[in-house]
Amino acid sequence: MKARVKLIEGVSFAGQSESGHTVVMDGSPDSGGKNLGVRPMEMLLLGLGGCSSFDVVHILRKGRQQVSDCVADIDAERAPTDPKVFTRIHVHFTVTGKSLDPKRVEQAVKLSAEKYCSASIMLGKTAEITHDFEVVEA
Are residues 116 and 78 in the same domain? Predict the structure, then answer.
């Protein structure tokens, strides 16, 4: 897997994935940025949310659960001093579908967190990561 990050101007960068997708990252205005894109540390949280959500949906659909939506709301805290690593991350999944089995949703969240989500497992080396979920009938 390859990626490229290129300076645009100031502290704005364009990140391009091997699959050809581009995302703009920028610093906060107090760091010289213009707020043109997400912060790099926000990208880590988005990666965690995307990776774990993909797993949850994939596991549930493989188990013949009729998932129509999955939202991961992520709340994180960082260390107060440099390096300001994540110290606590909580992921709340809202999984919507038709006649979803809450036990299967719980198992999918657990499997993602403990076995499949590389981002979650990697960030878990420095942060306490917790998860919960709710099931919404479609």
Answer: yes
